[in-house]
Write a structure and sequence with these properties.
Blueprint (H helix, E strand, L loop, with lengths): L3 E3 L2 E6 L1 H7 L8 E3 L9 H4 L4 H12 L5 H12 L11 E4 L2 E5 L10 H4 L2 H11 L5 E7 L3 H10 L5 E8 L5 H8 L6 E7 L2 H12 L2 H9 L2 E4 L6 H20 L9 E6 L4 H11 L4 E8 L4 H8 L1 E3 L20 H8 L4 H14 L1 E3 L2 H10 E5 L2 H15 L5 H16 L5 E6 L7 H8 L7 H12 L5 H4 L11 E3 L3 H8 L3
Parallel strand pairs: 5-15, 6-7, 6-9, 7-8, 8-16, 10-11, 10-15, 11-14
Antiparallel strand pairs: 1-2, 1-3, 4-5, 12-13
Helix pairs in contact: 1-6, 3-4, 3-11, 11-12, 17-18, 17-19, 19-20
This protein binds pyridoxal-5'-phosphate (PLP).
Length: 494
C-alpha cells in the first residue's frame, strides 16, 4: 500500500507507516498522498463525534496501513488526560472572531497537538514494518519544540529522546521547562553556542556513519520528529473539523456554511493542515495566512515570488521568525495538480538562488485559496492591548498577529463568513511581551512578570508554568559544540 509519494518525484513512494518513520523522502521531497480527498469523511457524521472519534477517523484516512484499533489507542493515549480542557481545543467567541485555543496541552503551546501523538504513531509504525530497533530522537531546539517533544516522548516505550538547546539562548521559562523535565528516557543538554550551532551539531551526528553504525550494533536508530513529518501534520487536520463542530453545536452556523480560518504561520504546517481539511471536504471559504515582519509568505502569496534572501528579524512572536517555510512545498504540489516536476524545479531554484517565481496561472490558483496579511511588533502589541481592554481576552503574541490580520481582512473585504482565529500559545508563555503590551515595560525576573500579569489581568497561569519555579532541576549538563557526540553516546550507555 504505497499511498505516499515524494512531492518532487512520483516514482519515489512509501507506505504510510514507512513515510512516517522516514520523515523525508530520499530525494529531499516531502511525502504527500496523490489521491487525498478521494476518500472524504461524511460531514454530518463526523461532526457528531467527540475529539477522539474525529481524530481516529481522520488519522485512518492519512494512515491507511495502521489497524484502526491501534489508531484508537494512540488517540486515547495522546489526548485523554494530558489536556486541561475537556474540549481539548475550546473555541471562544471574542468580539467578531472565534478563537480556537490550541494551547491546553502539557507545554501550553500548539506543538503539543502533534507531538503528543507522534511518538505513539511512530512506535506503532515501526512494529508494522517489523522494525524492532529502539528509536533515539535527537533534536536541537530554540525553545518551544524541544519541550513539546520531551513531553511527547517521555516514558514512551521503545524510545529515548535527547534535546540540545543553546545554554544562553533561550528564555528563563523555556530553560526551566527543559531542565526540570521528568521521564526515564529523556536527556537534556545545554551547549555553549547559539541555536545554529546546536542544529549543525545535531545534523553532523545524524550523518556520521561511525555513530549510526555504533547505534545499529546496539539495535538503536536515530529519528528527528520534525515538523515536515506526516505524523505531525495529520493530527493537526483534526482541530479544523473540531472548530467547525463547535460553531455548529453553538448554533452559529449550519452544516455546509463556509467559514474562514486565520492562522499565525511560520513553517506553514498549521495552515497546511487547514488546507488538508478543505480537501477532505470541510466547508472553508478562505485560509488567511498571518505573518509577522518576516513576511516572506505574505510577499509570496500576493506576488507569486518567494524570496528568502532578506534580513532576518527577531520579533516578539519568535515561533514565526522563519524565512524558509518547508511545508509550503506540499501546498505547491497540490495547487499545481500534483505536478512533481513543477515542485522539483521550484525547490531547485530556492536551493540554488534562495528564490522562485510561480506562473501566473499557479499564482491565481493560490490566491483562490489563500489570503495573507502581516503585522509589525507594535501593531501586535496594540492588538493585544485592545483585545484585553475591549473583551477582557488575554492573547499571546502569535495570536495577536493573527487577530490583527483577521480584523484587517474583515475591514478590507465584504466577506462576512464566520472568522475563526487559531491561538497557538498561552499568553503566559510570553509574559514579558504580553505584559508590556497592556501595561508598561517591566524589567524583572520572567517568573515575577508572569505572576504580576496574572494578578493584574485576573487570568490564571496554567499549572505547568506556575509550578516550574519550584520544580527540581534534573538536567545540569552543558557541553561545547565538540562534546555533543560524546554526550549522545554517554546517554545511550554505549
Ligand atoms: C510553531 C508555532 C507557530 C507556527 O506554526 P507553523 O506550523 O510552523 O506555521 C505559531 N505559533 C506558535 C506559538 C508556535 O509554536
Amino acid at each position: 500500500m504505497n499511498s505516499y509519494e515524494s512531492t518532487r518525484n512520483r516514482n519515489i513512494t512509501a507506505a504510510p507507516s514507512e513515510a512516517l518513520i522516514k520523515g523525508l523522502a530520499a530525494d529531499g521531497g516531502l511525502y504527500v498522498m496523490r489521491n487525498l480527498g478521494e476518500k472524504k469523511p461524511d460531514l454530518h457524521k463526523i461532526l457528531k463525534k467527540d475529539y477522539y472519534g474525529m481524530a481516529a477517523e481522520i488519522l485512518n484516512i492519512f494512515l491507511p496501513d495502521y489497524p484502526s484499533e491501534e489508531i484508537d489507542k494512540a488517540v486515547k493515549a495522546a489526548y485523554s488526560d494530558k489536556f486541561d480542557d475537556k474540549k481539548i481545543v475550546p473555541l471562544k467567541k471574542v468580539g467578531d472572531n472565534f478563537i480556537l485555543e490550541l494551547f491546553h496541552g502539557p507545554t501550553s503551546a500548539f506543538k503539543d497537538m502533534a507531538l503528543q501523538i507522534l511518538p505513539h504513531l511512530l512506535t506503532k509504525g515501526k512494529k508494522l514494518n517489523g522494525n524492532k530497533s529502539e528509536t533515539v530522537i535527537l533534536t536541537a531546539t530554540s525553545g518551544d519544540t524541544g519541550k513539546a517533544a520531551l513531553e511527547g516522548f517521555k516514558n514512551v516505550e521503545g524510545t529515548k529522546i535527547i534535546v540540545f538547546y543553546p545554554h544562553n539562548g533561550v528564555s528563563k521559562v523555556q530553560k526551566a521547562q527543559m531542565v526540570t523535565q521528568e521521564g526515564s528516557n529523556v536527556f537534556v543538554c545545554g551547549i555553549d553556542g547559539n541555536f545554529d550551532d546546536a542544529q549543525t551539531g545535531v545534523k553532523k551526528i545524524f550523518s556520521d556513519k561511525r555513530v549510526t553504525d555504533i547505534l545499529a550494533e546496539h539495535n538503536m536508530e536515530f529519528s528527528s520528529a520534525n515538523s515536515i513529518n506526516i505524523g505531525r501534520l495529520s493530527p493537526q487536520v483534526v482541530y479544523y473539523f473540531y472548530a467547525y463542530k463547535q460553531l455548529v453545536d453553538n448554533g452559529e452556523i449550519t452544516i455546509g456554511d463556509k467559514i474562514n480560518f486565520t492562522v499565525p504561520t511560520g513553517n506553514f504546517g498549521d495552515i497546511l493542515a487547514g488546507y488538508y481539511a478543505k480537501i477532505l471536504g470541510l466547508p472553508i471559504n478562505r485560509l488567511i495566512c498571518a505573518s509577522n515582519c518576516n513576511n516572506v509568505l505574505f510577499d509570496f502569496i500576493t506576488s507569486g515570488t518567494y524570496n528568502k534572501n532578506r534580513f532576518f528579524e527577531k520579533t516578539i512572536s519568535p515561533s514565526m521568525d522563519i524565512l524558509l517555510s518547508s511545508n509550503l512545498e506540499r501546498f505547491l504540489y497540490y495547487v499545481s495538480e500534483c505536478n512533481n516536476d513543477t515542485v522539483a524545479s521550484l525547490m531547485n531554484d530556492v536551493n540554488k538562488k534562495g528564490s522562485y517565481t510561480v506562473t501566473e496561472a499557479l499564482q491565481n490558483s493560490i490566491e483562490d485559496i489563500l489570503s495573507a496579511g502581516w503585522v509589525s511588533d507594535s501593531e501586535t502589541k496594540a492588538t493585544i492591548e485592545r483585545y484585553f481592554r475591549d473583551y477582557g481576552y488575554l492573547a499571546d503574541t502569535h495570536t495577536g498577529v493573527a487577530l490583527k490580520v483577521a480584523d484587517e481582512y474583515k475591514a478590507n473585504t465584504s466577506d462576512d463568513s464566520k472568522s475563526v482565529v487559531l491561538s497557538t500559545a498561552s499568553p503566559f508563555k510570553f509574559s514579558a511581551s504580553v505584559y508590556e503590551s497592556i501595561f508598561e515595560k517591566y524589567e524583572a525576573d520572567e517568573f515575577e512578570i508572569m505572576q504580576s500579569l496574572a494578578e493584574k489581568t485576573k487570568c490564571e497561569i496554567p499549572i505547568q508554568l506556575s509550578e516550574l519555579k519550584s520544580k527540581q532541576t534534573r538536567h545540569n549538563s552543558v557541553v561545547d559544540k565538540d562534546g555533543m557526540e560524546a554526550f549522545v553516546l554517554k546517554c545511550l550507555g554505549i
